[in-house]
Amino acid sequence: QVQLVESGGGLVQAGGSLRLACAASGRSFSDNAMGWFRQAPGKEREFVAAIARSGGSTYYADSVKGRFTISRDNAKISMYLQMNSLKPEDTAVYYCAATTTVTGWGSSPPRYSYEYNYWGQGTQVTVSS
Description:
Layout: E1 3-7, E2 10-13, E3 18-25, E4 34-39, E5 46-51, E6 58-60, E7 68-73, E8 78-83, E9 92-98, E10 118-119, E11 123-128
Parallel strand pairs: 2-11
Antiparallel strand pairs: 1-3, 3-8, 4-5, 4-9, 5-6, 7-8, 9-10, 9-11
């Protein structure tokens, strides 16, 4: 059974940092792009960041660019999201995802929910003001 499991969420004050981790089991995603999404209460799930299979290319939502860093360790079948300078508006459930259906990267990195076919259960991040 393929699973993606997020960890590292929690409560942090504005300006603080958190590091989320996503561990995969059941298969390797070393040949696949992966990404992070988030969903705040009453809002649609939104794209946060994506990383190519090699880790050499990354793509960020404008709202997190310069504050968040996505990375991966294919040997550990894991992906990370370092979140710095957190703001109350970053409060959401954060989901990791992997895609085996989108094989390219190029000029259009996968950044839509429908492009990902494996999802974790989510981890809550709460940023207090």
